[in-house]
Design goal:
The complex is a heterodimer.
Chain A lengths: L8 H19 L4 H20 L6 H19 L5 H17 L4 H17 L7 H20 L8 H24 L23 E2 L5 H4 L4 E7 L10 E7 L1 E2 L4 E2 L2 H4 L7 E3 L4 E7 L6 E2 L1 E2 L9 E3 L5 E3 L7 E7 L3 E3 L5 H8 L7 H13 L4 H15 L1 E2 L10 H9 L1 E2 L1 H14 L4 E8 L2 E3 L4 E5 L3 E9 L3 E5 L1 H5 L1 H5 L2 H5 L9 H22 L3 H5 L12 H24 L7 H17 L9 H11 L4 H15 L6 H13 L7 H6 L1
Parallel strand pairs in A: 14-15
Antiparallel strand pairs in A: 1-5, 2-7, 2-18, 3-9, 3-16, 4-5, 6-13, 7-12, 8-11, 10-11, 16-19, 17-18, 19-20
Helix pairs in contact in A: 1-2, 1-4, 1-5, 1-6, 2-4, 3-4, 4-5, 5-6, 6-7, 7-20, 11-14, 12-14, 13-14, 21-24, 22-23, 23-24
Chain B lengths: L13 H17 L4 H12 L4 E4 L6 H11 L4 E5 L6 H5 E6 L4 E6 L6 E5 L6 H13 L1 E4 L2 E4 L5 E6 L12 H4 L4 E3 L6 H9 L3 H7 L6 H12 L5 H16 L3 E3 L3 H17 L7 H12 L4 E2 L7 H11 L5
Parallel strand pairs in B: 1-8, 1-9, 2-5, 5-8
Antiparallel strand pairs in B: 3-4, 6-7, 10-11
Helix pairs in contact in B: 1-3, 2-11, 3-8, 9-11, 10-11, 11-12, 12-13
Classes of the chains: A alpha+beta, B alpha/beta.
Chain lengths: 655, 320
């Protein structure tokens, strides 16, 4: 076999750079067990190659080839699947660099880099990763280009790489929009094994702490009607009924009983659109209390919305809610039993206190609630740094630590209510949100996660009681962080928030236009062209048509006859002709400069500079085999300075 | 307007230029109202080419040839072609001389510096070929002996395009021997009135004085060949040639020889304009004369050759 030419120094460096940028998006995600050796391998190979161009012996390469699969199996348990697969790809790419000495290997390494780069999209399809990928692609293309040239500078290659990417963009867009999309993924992309933070259907003291410091957006809301006041912005999530002494959970079977809860709306309805970030759970969020369920979801008897599938991609739905309502005026016996359930053998002190209130106030729920809120208002502190609680978590919190945040308060309050004989439950969700003035929408972040209680009162139905609001009204008015301490964390500084607002706007667009562009939206793409529901053949046809047009345009552009030499002079003369055309004396293409000069002399008899320009041009173009560049520059400048009065119609006609 | 420029080629000698202007003016005094064809005729002579005048009888073809000969101080011969003419009638014949006992060559009328070949299409192809061969070689061979024709040697041929009975129109390939083909056309009314009012042409011709010596003419011809054709101009000429070959209504476009003729004629025209370099306008001025008789229209085309040439000029862009 004919051996491929050896790489020059620059070609190797660009190939190594391509390999490096290809593993770059994976590095943060990979365990250090893999990422550190991969990086070290690339760095060592770079250094080794700088010292000598000798090939590495097989006894170095072979053990490494065996080492990485072992490391991967050691960390992930197997070699297959998204995570171990991409880790293996990164490792093998770094190993490929070890044996890359000639052009053929470099080409293979760059192509494989492109694959590794693409696999980063399996984990994240956000905007920033896409921008990063494009930048990396430029380097890949530059490396590929460098293989075909013997240049010693990398800048021209980089430029041609960027150029190649830019020219591919229209075609990529065409394929993005028109390539037939499957309603369901072709292969089941395995889910992230590490669950994202988000509301769960279980609440134990401390579980929300992670959420409250997570500043990523949970969902965004655009209101069609007037926005309810901020202290009414309770976004309802899972409703938790069962308490086992340590955690509140939702009975699984309740979710499967889609009861149409009895809601009586008082006051105005609010309609809005929610765009939910992927949570990989079933929950959909809606403003308390939702009046309908979005498509593909059911509304449970407790008014929580459950999607039939996991929310793996951003989804959008329209909702109507009633901020003022009477929920379930007649309490279902099953619900009553659930809402009074308490684990036996836990929290004796809290039970005793509730019993005492019950006896003292003769079972009057209003007075019992007030007593509980008074107690919380009096001696409790809102803090995100809650101390750990023991086995009797409610007792510990109520009588000993007295420091906590929403979940502690709602848990303790609900417990007290039940112990005093008032049906109660915990509702989790989000409270408040941030209004982005630029985009006129609300963004609700994970840190807005909240838990509150609902008690059932005769004649009023389920009534929301937020014990956290009792101890820290700020929490409801300003947000968790403001409630927890006087100073906002650094990342909520004003100037930073202004930037973040803009960034959020861009992210929202990205989600809307790119990530959420799915099969359904694609089908409606051709509606303006009279195709109601574009099927695969139509989409394919449209893509092929548009693609060939784009390719044809590009081929035409690329194969255009190159401009003859002396371009600067031609360009300057063309500019002169454009100026003349704008002023009313367009040049005929077949018209020589002297003829044109005579014609414009009739139009602008007073413009002597114009005749001089023509004389200069004719002299440069035709009286010299090789015109003097300096004179061309002078001519160019003179043309730039030329100002022409618009020709009068009579003059233009006479010409 | 060219004073500020420093062209590579030097501008024509002012004395020669003045003499050239005078010569043209003198011819224009005899051939009234035909400045443009006269200029083309001068360009043809400067470029060393032969001229074909195609027009009706009586519009001044012969007068023009006479005036050119007289003005340029060239020896002049007129050959009136007929269908019974033989090659020896024009090139000459070897006759046995009793005194010397040898054959002696008697040169025919072709042995002149300017030959007017009148109604060339009346001659048989055989005779035509003899003439055209002489034009191309500038020499003739009789009985194995080669005889040089005088220098300079110009042929001005005329052809009547209307009266075709009993004629042998020159084949397309032969037309190529003529650098330029011009028409004279009827004079415009003013020129015609002046013509009618003035004295006899023959008298006028007799009064003509030579304006340019043979040496001056030779000098001008070499200066003409040195006129600069810049790469941009060559591009334009080539574009015209290429367009003639790609034109839908033209079966056979311009040959490279036609291109050389075009460039030579354009150089001569530039020289007549007092320029030491060619501009596209020079090419445009000579293009119909050089190209029209060389274009062979396609069978389906009803457009005349002159129209085709004009069409090419209008289509081919001058630079950008």
């Amino acid at each position: 076999m004919k051996s491929s030419p050896a790489l020059t120094g620059l070609q190797f460096r660009l190939t190594a750079a391509a390999v490096f940028v290809a593993v770059l998006p994976h590095l943060l995600r990979l365990p250090s067990l893999i990422s550190v050796p991969v990086l070290a391998l690339i760095a060592l190979r770079w250094l080794q190659r700088r010292r000598s161009t000798k090939r590495l012996p097989a006894w170095i390469k072979l053990p490494l080839v065996l080492l990485f699969p072992v490391l991967i199996v050691f960390h992930y348990g197997n070699l297959f699947g998204r995570e171990p697969g991409s880790a293996l790809a990164c490792a093998m790419l770094a190993l490929k660099l070890l044996e890359t000495d000639n052009r053929r290997d470099a080409r293979a390494a760059i192509c494989f880099s492109a694959f590794v780069l693409m696999s980063a999209l399996l984990f994240d399809q956000g905007m920033w990763i896409t921008v990063l990928l494009c930048a990396a692609l430029v380097i890949l293309l530059a490396a590929l280009r460098a293989l075909e040239s013997a240049r010693t500078q990398w800048l021209p290659d980089l430029r041609s790489g960027a150029f190649a990417l830019a020219t591919a963009l229209p075609l990529a867009l065409c394929a993005f929009v028109l390539f037939p999309r499957l309603a369901s993924p072709l292969w089941g992309a395995p889910n992230d094994t590490t669950a994202r933070t988000g509301l769960g259907d279980r609440m134990a003291p401390g579980t929300m702490q992670e959420l409250l410091i997570d500043d990523s957006p949970a969902f965004r809301v655009v209101f069609d009607t007037t926005t309810p006041p901020r202290d009414k912005l309770y976004w309802r999530g899972p409703v938790l009924w069962q308490f086992d002494g340590s955690a509140w959970t939702r009975p699984e079977w309740l979710a499967s009983r889609p009861g149409d809860g009895d809601v009586r709306v008082r006051g105005d309805r609010v309609s809005y659109e929610v765009t939910l970030e992927p949570s990989e759970r079933h929950w959909l969020l809606a403003l308390d209390v939702p009046l309908l369920a979005p498509q593909g979801a059911v509304r449970g008897a407790d008014m929580s919305l459950v999607s039939r599938t996991h929310v793996d991609d951003p989804i959008r739905y329209r909702m109507v809610s009633a901020p003022d309502y009477v929920l379930e005026p007649m309490l279902d016996p099953l619900h009553r039993r659930l809402a009074l359930q308490l684990p036996t053998g836990f929290d004796p002190r809290a039970r005793a206190l509730a019993q005492r209130w019950h006896d003292e106030f003769h079972g009057d729920p209003n007075r019992i609630i007030n007593a509980a809120l008074d107690m919380i208002r009096g001696e409790f502190t809102y803090t995100l740094n809650a101390p750990l609680l023991g086995r009797d978590s409610v007792d510990d919190f109520l009588f000993d630590t007295r420091r906590g945040f929403c979940e502690h308060f709602s848990s303790a309050f609900t417990f007290l209510m039940r112990a005093a004989g008032i049906p109660a439950r915990v509702v989790t969700g989000y409270q408040g949100g941030y209004f982005n003035k630029l985009g006129n929408y609300w963004v609700v972040r994970q840190s807005d996660a909240h838990a509150w209680s609902e008690v059932w009162l005769q004649g009023l139905g389920w009534v929301r009681v937020d014990p956290t609001a009792a101890v820290s009204p700020q929490r409801v008015q300003a947000g968790a962080h403001a409630a927890a301490g006087a100073s906002a964390p650094w990342y909520q500084a004003d100037w930073l928030m202004a930037i973040r607002n803009r960034m959020d706007l861009v992210n929202r667009f990205w989600n809307d236009a790119i990530v959420q562009f799915n099969a359904l939206r694609q089908q409606s793409l051709l509606t303006p062209f009279g195709v109601d529901k574009a099927e695969y053949p139509q989409l394919m046809l449209a893509m092929l048509a548009l693609g060939s047009v784009l390719l044809g345009l590009f081929a035409w552009w690329a194969m255009r006859a190159p401009k003859p030499a002396g371009d600067a002079l031609d360009a300057a003369y063309a500019r002169l002709c454009r100026k003349l055309a704008r002023a009313g004396a367009a040049r005929d293409r077949a018209e020589g400069p002297l003829t044109l000069a005579m014609r414009v002399a009739a139009t602008w008899p007073a413009q002597h500079g114009l005749q001089d320009l023509f004389a200069q041009y004719v002299g440069l173009r035709y009286a010299h085999a090789l015109p003097d560049p300096e004179r061309i520059q002078n001519f160019t400048r003179a043309v730039a300075r030329l100002r022409l009065p618009v020709a009068t119609p009579a003059a233009a006609q006479s010409s | 307007m060219n004073t500020r420029l420093a062209p590579v080629a030097s501008a024509p000698d002012p004395v020669l230029a003045a003499a050239l202007e005078r010569a043209q003016a003198q011819v224009n005094r005899v051939v009234l109202g035909k400045a443009a064809p006269v200029r083309l005729a001068f360009a043809c002579i400067l470029a060393g080419g032969h001229l074909l005048i195609e027009d009706l009888p009586g519009v001044g073809k012969t007068t023009l040839a006479h005036a050119l000969a007289a003005t340029l101080d060239l020896s002049f011969q007129r050959i009136q072609f007929t269908s019974d003419m033989l090659p020896s009638d024009i090139i000459g014949v070897s006759v046995y001389e009793r005194e010397s006992g040898a054959f002696k060559f008697h040169p025919g009328p072709l042995f002149a510096q300017l030959v007017l070949a009148d109604e060339i299409n009346r001659a048989t192809p055989k005779t035509q070929s003899a003439l055209l061969e002489a034009m191309a070689e500038q020499q003739i061979t009789v009985d194995g002996a080669t005889h040089k024709l005088p220098t300079p040697f110009f042929v001005v041929a005329t052809q009547n395009p209307v009266e075709l009975a009993g004629t042998y129109p020159l084949p397309d390939s032969q037309l190529d021997r003529f650098m330029l083909r011009i028409g004279l056309d009827y004079p415009d009314p003013a020129a015609e009135r002046a013509l009618l009012a003035s004295s006899d042409r023959r008298e006028l011709l007799a009064q003509l004085t030579p304006c340019l010596s043979t040496a001056q003419l030779a000098h001008m011809r070499s200066a003409t060949a040195a006129v600069l054709a810049s790469p941009a101009l060559i591009d334009y000429v080539q574009a015209l040639l290429a367009a003639s070959r790609a034109h839908a209504q033209i079966r056979v476009g311009l040959s490279p020889r036609a291109g050389l003729a075009l460039l030579a004629a354009a150089r001569a025209y530039a020289f007549l304009e007092g320029r030491a370099y060619c501009v596209p306008e020079d090419v445009q001025a000579v293009f119909p004369g050089v190209a029209a008789h060389r274009l062979i229209p396609s069978a389906s085309s009803s457009t005349s050759r002159d129209r085709l040439a004009a069409d090419l000029l209008a289509k081919v862009p001058v630079r950008n």
